[in-house]
Design goal:
The chain has 205 residues and is an alpha+beta fold. It is built from 5 helices and 10 strands; from the N terminus they run αββαββαβββββααβ. A hairpin with a 6-residue loop joins strand 3 and strand 4.
């Protein structure tokens, strides 16, 4: 056991950064949303937490947590990436313990070099081709959180006005913007503060 811990410590000293893939936790079904991040090995989990909130999640200051694959074991936000990912190459993450967004962080590569910033966005999925459910001609710009589980839940601007005449809740509280995030349409989430140019609606080419 002591030999194993020493080996992990030696590996950690040689690491400068991690390549992390972040995606919706597949235990709740497949999702097209993903991030590829280049993370400095000395970054604490609370910095990664702040980044995930900024690009995908933050709406009302909800609580969040990193957990091991056993889910019951919470990992301290004050731990460094190198101390966590050399032991647990896969972490689960939860934002908002009510209307929860569940993510999975997986180490897909390591490097001895360090990024210029603590966290660098390498890539992410492009805005999804979500079309208006009513006209099926224009990209959707809004979702109705009340009707999103029915046949018509996503609308272009023109059809959103029509939907508001039949759904009393739409103008009141249920209208939410289409954003490039697995938290779209949940709670009060209206979009991120990081990489805004790829956080908008689908643009047909």
């Amino acid at each position: 056991m002591n030999k194993h811990l020493q080996e992990m410590e030696d590996i950690g000293k040689q690491l400068g950064s991690f390549h992390l893939k972040v995606e919706s936790n597949p235990r709740w079904g497949k999702s097209p949303y993903f991030l590829n991040l280049w993370v400095d090995s000395d970054v604490k989990l609370k910095v990664i937490d702040k980044y995930l909130r900024g690009i995908w999640l933050e709406c009302c200051g909800h609580l969040s947590a990193f957990r091991t694959s056993r889910r019951s074991d919470e990992v301290s936000m004050n731990k460094k990436a190198v101390d966590v990912f050399t032991v647990y190459p896969v972490l689960e993450y939860e934002y908002d313990f009510g209307s929860t967004t569940d993510l999975l962080l997986t180490v897909v590569g390591v490097s001895s070099s360090k990024p210029e910033e603590k966290i660098v966005l390498l890539s992410r999925n492009e805005p999804l081709p979500i079309m208006c459910d009513r006209c099926n001609k224009q990209p959707a710009t809004q979702v109705c959180t009340v009707c999103s589980y029915e046949d018509e839940g996503s609308f272009c601007d023109k059809c959103a006005k029509q939907h508001a005449t039949t759904c009393e809740d739409f103008d009141d509280y249920a209208a939410m913007p289409v954003v490039n995030s697995p938290r779209m349409g949940v709670c009060g989430y209206e979009g991120g503060t990081i990489d805004k140019e790829r956080d908008g609606i689908y643009i047909a080419k």
